Amino acid sequence: MNRIRRYQKILGLAVFSTAMALVIVTLSRESTEAADHRDGPIFSNTPANGRADINDIYLFQAPGNNNNTVMILTVSPFPGGGGGTPATFDQSLTYDFKVDNTGDAVEDLTFRVTFSAPNAQGVQRYTLRGLPSSKFRPTGILATGSTGANVPIRGGGLIRAAIQDDPFFFDGTGFGQFIAAGAVAFPRAPGTAKNFFGPDANTLAITIEIPTSKLRSAPGNPNIGLYATTSKNGVLMDRMGRPAINTTLVPPVPRNNLTLGSRQTAFNKGLPRNDKRDFRANMITILNTVYGRPINGPFPTSATSLADFLLPDILTFNTSTAFTTNASDANGFPNGRRMRDDVIDLELNLLTGGGITTDNVGDDNGDRISDGTLRSNGSARPIAFPYIGPPNLPLNGAGNSFPRP
Amino acid sequence: MFRSKRTKTVRTRLSVEILDSRIVPAVITESALASAVPAPQGIVDGPGGVWYTDSGAAKIGRIDSNGMVTEFALSDPLADPRGIAVGSDGALWFTLFGIDAIGRLDPANGLISQFSLTTGTAPTEIASGPDGRLWYTGQGTDEIGAITTSGVATTIATLSPGDLPFGITTGPDDRLWFTQFGSSEVGAITTDGTLSEFSLVDLLEPGAAITTGPDGNIWFGSATSAFIGRITPAGTLTEFTGFGVPESTVTDIVAGPDGALWFTQGDGDRVGRIATDGTVTNEFDTTDVGAPAAIASASDGNLYFTEPGTASVTQIATTGEQLTTQLVASSGPTDVTATNDGTVWYTQADANKIGRLTPVSGAVIEYSLSVPLSDPRGITVGPDGNIWFAEFGSDRIGRFTPAGVLTEFDIPTVGAGPIEIVTGPDGALWFTQSAADQIGRIDTTGTITEFAVPGIGSIPFGIASGSDGRLWFTQNGSDQIGAITPAGVVTEFEVPGASSEPMGIAPGPDGALWFTQFASSQIGRISTDGTVSEFATLTADAGPREIVAAIDGRLWFTLETINALGQINVMGVASEITDGLTESAGLSGIAALPTGSLVVAETTANQIANVFVGSPIDAASTIAVGTDRGTVGTVRVFAADQTELYNLMPFGPNFLGGVRTAQADFNGDSVADLVVGTGPGITTRVIVFDGATRTILFDVMPFEPSFTGGVYVSAGDITGDGAADLVVSPDEGGGPRVDIYTGAGFARIGTFFGIADPNFRGGARTAMGDMNGDGRKDLGVAAGFGGGPRVAVFDGTTITTADPIRLFNDFFAFEQTLRNGTYIAMGDLDGDGLAELFMGGGPGGGPRVTVFSAANLVSSGGATQTPLANFFAGDPNTRGGIRLAVKNLDGDGIADLVVGSGAGSGSAVTGYLGVLIAANAAAPPPEFTFDAYSDFTGGVFVG
Questions:
Q1: CB atoms within 10 A of CB B361
Q2: How many A/B residue pairs have CB atoms within 8 Å?
Q3: Which of B421, B408, B497 is nearest to B460 (CA)?
Q4: What is the Cα–Cα distance from B205 to B772, expressed in whole angstroms?
Q5: Which chain B residues are within 8 Å of A277, Cβ to Cβ?
Q6: pTM score, two decimals?
């Protein structure tokens, strides 16, 4: 608990707003790791496990409604396209949003979404449960509805589960070449660097907008942490807090260095509360040997301070933070995460101590994201739930085909 | 009994009329569950897994090889269990530091015994000695003690004051070796008490850590620094330092499975390995602030250590890989059920546990489910005697045997959200799938079948087995009630009004299903043909949640929002109870115990409430029929189904004067006892027969020997002491006198004139019932033959005083000009909890029955006589009047009526159900009628 409090103090210095950086990684043949896409050996591009692969989570105050908080889980890269996965949610999986509102890295609230098999039109029935149900009285059932539609949540809010535009942007191919053996320069030059995810790639997404009061432990404690999991038969398949933790900081990094073993699957099956115990030492080693951070020293220069900041892997957010239209201001990542936040640039900058400041790919979502931000001409975009963009059609079009640029 | 320190007992007197001779106030007892944060301390490898003491939550726990946690609650929250060892008897033995006792837990049945030590002993660590005894250190009394497996404790050695003996272990030399924190010594003692002590060179303070190493030496650690010592049995000391953080302690040490020793460093959050040559070969970080305490080597090849700081027990392989079992504070009982032996099982959605409470002993065993967020909800006892429950979060159905063996069955539909479960008529369990709009069926072997419920978001919630062989369920999302046949055919019925959110459902005594409507704050009733009626809760927005039928014939339900219990009878009359309940208790599930008590889950207060509901006894349903004058005085006693239970000629074969009857339970055996009184012709006599054995409990000639006019009798608990009392009044020729005999000892405790005119010589007839709702029966007195149909009712709390007080002014039940007196009975017909006056025409009149509202009589001082029913209970042309008695024929808590033919009018006995009288006030259909004496037509008395 003091852990979280400590972070926020540090964040208060606003060191991060400019200095933060990020990460990502990748590799392999037809696919690329990204924020959390393809973050482990089990997530090859197969219709099986690929559907359990979490892409990203987003967490921000609802644009236009400061009483609500929005949580988005994107999963299953390039569904219905070249990713090899169908454009539907896997009915054998359990999708969880886990909220820690007491700062002890243990979830206090879980929003659990499960799906039926798709009908002939590809529509799935799904249910949102609040767990433990004793905290979501009287029934524990928060919403029931069909994919592709906005569904009201009991007690306030909306949920939507559907295929959507993937808002993430990152030169996955370039980074993949970089991290494969650490032998290729990064970033690629402007013009050569390409957004692996767009502008017209798709993802499955579950978007929940809910009154912030329902997420807080007490009205006076605005701080929450979020991580998401997919699980099957009660067994964790993937989990994610901050973007690109597993892809950039969990062995092997680079991918051809197996000195520390291959621990990406162990990370995906781990729990945040055990992260420091189980992954801190590995992370310090990688930050030191791969990213060149000194072992000891003040935050954010040292490997130790970075590891202690990044673990446990939970996306923390002060829910009283206003949603602002400037995607690069201090109101966003690492305080929650908005869809336009350039988390990769921030994280790469942080991990490398300013050595890499950008992947030369920026927000290309334009009007796809209906979040009220300003266009280049100064006019405001509309604000409309679910904020994330509609899917790019056809599903197997260029934006979802391989190889990626 | 329940733990006194955590139990709150509040007695609540309910304004509930119980249709019977016994009035019992409802008593709510709340049994708190341990809710403290776990802080595991000691640990040992034992039968069935690794056992630990939990000083924080006062429990003994076990983690089995599947990671399942079973917790056994100690009765005293301050017990503070510390060290734990396996005794030579195979049981777990542990010190209870906080209460100066040694505890023993039998792993076969979970029973815990406690053996007290001298006050102030402060027993700390414990080890199984070579002599079969358990040896312990007493820090408070500086002693080494031993206790036999039968619980006899002996102080073996008393050390110097301040030595503070701490850790203890059995050495390779069959001596017990122990550390002395206060004197920086290591001691050794033979089983016959010969003591040796060895001083540490550096005056390091050895703590709890001491063990026998694989090298045949004794190893121990310092409670103040990173120091490990080794001492040979001969006393040669070696010290090892230079590992870990210098000032970090060595909290515990144990021989590992790998030929080395393993130790914890509590304030360093580390576990280390030290080889027998003193080299620390590995140190592993453990969870931050876990503060590893005790460590044990287990038969599975791993080591286990407790982490009191993070409430966890962690397995560590010799490679350092760690697997943590998180202990969770008990909290949030959600639903309850009870087995035939009265054991209460409950789900804890929040803590992810199933609990088992034995009310008599207060013993609590809790089982943690292995998958987090399984969120167990509904729970019931299956036809196989096992406990079945719905895992809302993990989409499984769980089953516990009474002994605590868990099996879980995956529901085929991921996202089923099973929420409530009940036994169906087909011997299978049926459950609602709230998140998948399906009903599931699971047979006792675990085979699951699923049936769709129409619509998306109908949220099937509560489920109950109906009297029609179907399963009935609420649809919380679609405001419907569904019924499904065992073959899976679903029929749906609309609940009127939008957003009523039906939740709990239970079968009522009337054959209908009763359900709660959370959002519209109503109680609904649906007959098996689908007819719905609704009754608003007395308090608006009360949040009715779960519902169950109780043996008082009423439906009881939890009112979550207003923190009350509600009850409603089959007429729809409700009341609400708050006294005795913890504020903001979070009332949720409710279930009936086999004793008739109710148990209620209090989710927020983390308690199980026991609600003792007054129960009608069997007497109320049996019918005693006595002959009128003109034949040998005989009594036949019938069950409610009109089968004869027994018969008697109570006054011998020569008595032809008629037998007046009443029934109530005088001796507390729950069997109605029989009261008979003589009619005219001989000296008056009253006998009470034991209804079970027909032996005589009481035999009295109540009035002067010269009076031969006969008596009337009534019976019931009018003194409120739980035993029936007897009231005797003279028949014609006597004064309107009323004598009251206590059922406890049959002393006469009251006598007065029930009709204001002591010169009246028509006698009197009596009945009992609570008319003013104070929980005590009142006494109704009606004039006998020759008087007007006058009625007086006396406050039951005053009838043993010299001047009993009337509840209201006397009135005439029928035309004042009649001179036949009137027969009388009392019972609640309209379900308001107040006993109505049932008046029957006296001899010479027709068989007219009129029922007067108690509420209106009491509130108006007798001025307002509102007939709730008025009808002829037989041929209106007969002129024998009508004898009557109130019964509980159908168990629904509404007064039923039995009448007997008046003088010279036959021997018919006719029964009317109260609900039908209320619904057909002018001509209720008889439920049954039969001739009690086929060859006799002189009339009968019923009681």
A1: 12
A2: 113
A3: B421
A4: 74
A5: 285-288, 322
A6: 0.81
